């Protein structure tokens, strides 16, 4: 351990152990979040007698309302986290999510389910506070690598979750699976409570400078907003394919073979690439500078999206979606590293929460954009539009951020 990695005796924590504990916690959270999504429309169908259009509407609403509420509420929880501590907010989020998901198994109608999905969004913030905790409790020279590791935890959980949820749904009822999901998050609550360490929030005379920091007095606001927008647009293009992935796969394979199985592989490729490469690029960013990774990610994403619009084989589609995941793994940890390095100590959680809000907006915009483009043009046009969005995003980053700020 280098001199810069050491803390003073009254602040010493085992930050390396923290990373792996939080990794496991966000992995379990990723599983819990994603395992209920594959059967959500089927569960809604058991709560009433719906036409096809009604079922589609309520399924979309159940997906969107969670992210919309998250976008509004996240900054509030971020402010509390900066004053009370990130570990406490992780515990609050885990317990709140455990309760809301457990209660979904008792929903009697679709409106109760929608209300509980909104409650889930209101009580969230686990992952953003996990990132903020790691960012503030890790030596600065290790932040990029550490955040890259945390990204793999949540992404890996999101990959495993649908497989676990689909397998369990064939064995137990939908209601029971919601209860299991709630129990998983309850375990996460105790896991964080007993195993995660956090230096105490400053008190007394040290507290005033921290509390006085506000958005109005925040330096580098243009930089931070640009990073928020970058996160939102990355999430938008990533989610744009979701409504049509199986339909596009069916077109590519000419309705031959197991379309559902192949679509699952295609959908998993970006996440798999992120799990593999995020720690590597996080470590590289700590050495050469995070801004170079973000710029490389923009270029790689453009060169991945454009050929996808003309792909004619499923192997080519799988490889290009894997390349999109590699571009994500260059950008997402790097953005969070820049947020950490350019946020005042008393606003780290708020900044990460704002970033989560923009990411949630992208999660809603993406499927809407993809569905609209598919209806107006065709499936392949989605990838050309995505390439255009990424290119514009890259130019804005270069001229508004990279050329104006001395980033490291």
TrEMBL record:
Domain of life: Bacteria
Domain Major facilitator superfamily (MFS) profile intervals: 18-405
Membrane-spanning residues: 20-44, 56-77, 89-108, 114-135, 147-171, 177-196, 222-241, 261-281, 293-323, 381-399
Keyword terms, alphabetized: Cell membrane, Membrane, Transmembrane, Transmembrane helix, Transport
Coiled coil regions, renumbered to chain: none
SUPFAM superfamilies: MFS general substrate transporter (SSF103473)
Mode of membrane association: Multi-pass membrane protein
Pfam entry (one): MFS_1
Compartment(s) of residence: Cell membrane
Protein name: MFS transporter
Species of origin: Fructobacillus americanaquae
Source species taxonomy: Bacteria, Bacillati, Bacillota, Bacilli, Lactobacillales
């Amino acid at each position: 351990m280098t001199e810069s990695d050491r803390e003073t005796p009254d602040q010493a924590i085992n930050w390396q152990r923290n990373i792996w504990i939080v990794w496991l916690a966000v992995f379990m959270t990723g599983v819990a979040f994603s395992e209920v999504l594959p059967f959500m429309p089927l569960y809604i169908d058991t709560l009433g007698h719906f036409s096809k259009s009604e079922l589609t509407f309520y399924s979309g609403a159940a997906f969107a309302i969670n992210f919309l509420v998250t976008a509004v509420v996240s900054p509030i929880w971020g402010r509390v986290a900066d004053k009370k501590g990130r570990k406490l907010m992780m515990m609050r989020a885990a317990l709140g999510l455990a309760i809301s998901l457990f209660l979904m198994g008792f929903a009697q109608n679709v409106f109760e389910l929608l209300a509980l999905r909104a409650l889930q969004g209101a009580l969230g913030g686990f992952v953003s506070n996990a990132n903020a905790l790691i960012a503030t409790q890790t030596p600065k020279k290790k932040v990029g690598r550490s955040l890259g590791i945390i990204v793999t935890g949540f992404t890996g959980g999101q990959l495993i979750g649908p497989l676990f949820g689909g397998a369990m749904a064939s064995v137990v009822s939908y209601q029971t699976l919601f209860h299991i999901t709630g129990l998983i998050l309850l375990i996460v609550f105790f896991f964080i409570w007993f195993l995660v360490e956090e230096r105490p929030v400053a008190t007394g005379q040290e507290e005033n400078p921290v509390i006085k920091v506000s958005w109005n007095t925040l330096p580098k606001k243009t930089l931070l907003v640009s990073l928020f927008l970058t996160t939102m647009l990355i999430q938008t293009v990533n989610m744009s394919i979701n409504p049509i992935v199986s339909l596009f796969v069916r077109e590519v394979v000419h309705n031959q073979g197991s379309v559902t199985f192949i679509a699952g592989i295609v959908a998993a490729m970006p996440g798999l690439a992120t799990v593999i490469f995020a720690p590597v690029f996080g470590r590289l960013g700590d050495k050469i500078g995070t801004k170079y990774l973000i710029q490389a990610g923009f270029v790689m994403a453009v060169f991945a999206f454009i050929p996808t619009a003309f792909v004619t084989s499923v192997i080519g589609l799988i490889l290009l979606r894997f390349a999109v995941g590699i571009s994500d793994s260059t950008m997402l940890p790097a953005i969070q590293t820049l947020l950490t390095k350019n946020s005042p100590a008393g606003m780290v959680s708020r900044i990460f929460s704002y970033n989560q809000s923009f990411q949630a907006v992208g999660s809603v915009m993406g499927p809407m954009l993809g569905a609209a483009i598919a209806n107006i043009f065709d499936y392949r046009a989605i990838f050309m539009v995505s390439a255009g969005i990424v290119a514009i995003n890259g130019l804005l980053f270069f001229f508004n951020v990279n050329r104006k700020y001395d980033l490291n």
